[in-house]
Amino acid sequence: MIAAYVLAAFVFQPSAKGQTADSSWTLQKCIEYSLQQNIQVRKTSLTTDINKVYAEQSKASVFPSLNASVSQNFGWNKSLNSAGQYSSYSGSNGTNYGVNSSVTLYNGGQIRNSIKQDDLTYKASQFDTETIKESISMSVLNAFLQVLYAEEQVKNTQRQIESTMEQLSLAEERIKVGVISKSEYLQVKAQLATEKLTLANAESQFAINRIALMQLMELPASSNFSIDHPNFENAVSLNRNVISDSIYSQALAIKPQIKSAELNKQNAQLGVEIAKAGYLPSLILSTGLSTGYSSSMSGLAYDYQVKNKISPSVGLSLSIPIFQNKQVRSRVAIAKIQTYNAELSENDTKNQLRKVIEQASVDVASAEKRFDASVEEYNATKESYLVSTEKFNQGLLNSVDYLIQKTNMIAAESNLLQSKYSLIFSYKTLDFYTGIPLTL
Question: Which of 1, 147, 271, 399 could link 200 by a cystine bridge, Cβ 3.0 to 4.6 Å?
């Protein structure tokens, strides 16, 4: 009980922002809040924003550049007179104005492929963000179900304690009239103490699961935090027709990690084309316009000089690579290796997805069998327990045999509860890979 009280004291803190005592969190609300608050998601989103800026910058590289310049110069020199002597220093100044522009006409497709590459990087980062969001959503689903499971365990244990307390009261009356021995009475009393300990452990686990969900949501611990209780009557439908190959085919078409891997492979392939462009010549068109003023041109006004010294220029620059110390060849070789690595990463991502789906399919089949067996065990044990309870109440069954039946009933009820939530999570996992939203 001490552990339960400590955990309860930790949980009972002021309510989180936006959470009132009367409100409850649905699974969808928990997932949405988690995705908004999760640091990893937010950091990945910032990376996506950076890649978007790079993509926009890359597209702007096809336009000409334009630069303006202004310079002011001062100079001093000595002049030689008719007598062959140098005079003292005399100063002059000049001002130059210029506008220059250049644009790449051809560079082996580097600009065009770089634009495609940066756009692919941006799109791949978007899918990477979606992959992280899906992973977090599945974690929230699991934590949500764990809270529901732990809460039901607490309620079941409380009902068991209520039943045992009634049996203890009956045993007290019987021992007074000498119907049962003191040892039988003490056995019932010991059973009650055991169930109270079980309740303390169940409450502790409930508190732990509750805090785990809030921490996963980046939500401050609060006593007002409560979750919605869905109706699971139609959630369990045994004998689902699970075909892993079909689910895998659907997942290949929709899962963001697959799309990201495909884009990364295309990105690497473009890297080879960009590297090969280093073998080709590049052609750059440049234009310019300049004018200026010099004080040494005495008698000519400032505006007159500026207007009449305008000098336009146009030029073409062709750069032809001849020998570059194997730099281009090395870049091409590295780009090809990176392409092969991207292909391996894509295959690995697909294989990992296939393995997860195959395991999830097996888990569903196993969970269905466990749940079906748990239902049969529970029904049979419950029937036996009800008969034993009636016999015990009538004094036809001793406490030892009765407590054995009750212990079996408690175990069967716990197994059924555990198998139910395990089956629900297995179903939701398969639904997740087919693109069905995570809802309860």
Answer: 1
Q: pTM above 0.90?
A: no
Instruction: Provide long-range contacts, Cβ within 8 A and 24+ apart, for 264-268.
Output: 264/120, 264/124, 264/342, 264/345, 264/346, 265/339, 265/342, 265/343, 265/345, 265/346, 266/120, 267/117, 267/120, 267/121, 267/124, 267/342, 268/335, 268/338, 268/339, 268/341, 268/342, 268/343
Contact 375, 412 (CB under 8 A): no
CATH superfamily, region 240-280+328-434: Outer membrane efflux proteins (OEP) (1.20.1600.10)
Superfamily of domain 1-7+23-74+91-228+283-320: Outer membrane efflux proteins (OEP) (1.20.1600.10)
Q: At 58, is the pLDDT very low, low, confident or very high (cuts 50, 70, 90)? A: very high
Q: How many residues does the chain have?
A: 440
pLDDT digits (tens, 9 = 90+) for 346-390: 999 999 999 999 999 999 989 989 999 999 999 999 999 899 888
